Amino acid sequence: MKLITGNAPHLRSNDTTEKVMIDVIIALIPAIIGAWYFFGEYALFLILLGAFSGELFELFVMKVLRKDKNFVPNGSAAITGILLAMNVSSATPWWVFLIGLVFALGVAKHAFGGLGMNIFNPALAGRAFLLVSFPVSMTTWYKPVFSFSKWVDIQTMATPLAVLKETGSVNISYWDLFIGNRGGSLGETSVLLLLIGFAYLVVKKRIKIMIPITYISTVFVMSGIFYLVNSSFGSPLFHILSGGLMLGALFMATDMVTSPMTVKGQIIFGIGLGVMTLLIRYFAGYPEGVSLSILLMNAFVPLIDRYTVPKVFGEVKA
């Protein structure tokens, strides 16, 4: 294919896919350390397994199955593996996790054409597949151990959202929810560590900040209305700090490929995420709704982009 360059002006940048992926991995390091601290060595093992296995599997797909001799690993598969690990329980067997990773990369990503072509977030698609295929492993939660070693007594516990769903009330402090002293997936429990990583991405200008702002704001307003009607629905702050909302809002919904390009589209996307998340939490059988709401809204992204394209400068209205 011959590349023809037209007349100036052109927007030039030194950014590469590899640089962007490295920044995302750096931003995830605080949450990775937190997962190791809260859930022990096995949590770190799953995260590292996801990163290296993801890259190896994608290399196999590109070199052997797709016959792309020029393919060079760019880190995107490693991020998929890390994010999938951060979305599973520490009770998930490593071989179950690898099945989910193969689905995430093989079906949700490369079946659509690879990086930049996938409709759904690969890591969340892998999580949804595991949730349906291995529900016991994916819904068994361990109590944080506060140790860099797994060699301590392990106790199972329900997540705050599950307790609220079953009893209509929950006895846990906002501080424990904020720092991560609760049951949940490996990388979702500590809001503090997620915010530190998110701040790094904002400084590096790697994030679509309008999506998390509208997502979290929608959850706050909508849950506040429900809370005023009936306190058993849970307070706005509880819904923001609980479950995987912060992980989803800051690192999953903002995925460059599967989120809208325009600011107006990102606002619509964020509002839709907030509404769907709470509808699932309130009225569905499953206590959490973040991953499913993101996957559902991913399907609407092409339509959102189509109807929120800004007017071209100088265009005359018909």
Automatic annotation (TrEMBL):
Compartment list: Cell inner membrane
Assigned keywords, A-Z: Cell inner membrane, Cell membrane, Electron transport, Flavoprotein, FMN, Membrane, Phosphoprotein, Translocase, Transmembrane, Transmembrane helix, Transport
UniProt keyword annotation of Transcription regulation present: no
Signal peptide: none
EC number from the UniProt entry: 7.-.-.-
Chain positions found as FMN phosphoryl threonine: T159
Spans through the membrane: 20-39, 45-64, 71-88, 94-112, 124-142, 183-202, 209-229, 235-253, 265-284
Classification via Pfam families: NQR2_RnfD_RnfE
Domain of life according to the entry: Bacteria
Membrane topology term: Multi-pass membrane protein
GO cellular component: plasma membrane
Cofactor(s) the protein needs: FMN
Role summary: Part of a membrane-bound complex that couples electron transfer with translocation of ions across the membrane.
Subunit structure and binding partners: The complex is composed of six subunits: RnfA, RnfB, RnfC, RnfD, RnfE and RnfG.
Name of the molecule in the record: Ion-translocating oxidoreductase complex subunit D
Gene source species: Thermosipho melanesiensis (strain DSM 12029 / CIP 104789 / BI429)
Name of the coding gene: rnfD
